[in-house]
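Give me structure tokens for this 97-residue protein.
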Amino acid sequence: MSMTLAVTRNVSPRIRGFLASSMLELAPGVYSAPRLSPAVRDRIWTVLQDWFKAEQEASVVMVWQDANMPGGQSVKTLGLPPVELVELDGLIVTRHP
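Here you go.
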């Protein structure tokens, strides 16, 4: 279990309410869960992916600790801009496909 953080922009109240029911809303659109299991995180992400189809000009970013990834964290995104962490000459950078 690791700290998970989700940041939203321009999402519907339905998504905000769902995230607030499973994570602590630290600030408008910023959600955190200190000990979220991978299974629960995946279920939350599956719901977000399904509901996101109805969103317009919105985005969701979710990050969590992952020792197997560059920079020690994984990132999932919905909407724009999509982001991927990559290692480039020993530095961790974001790539926008």
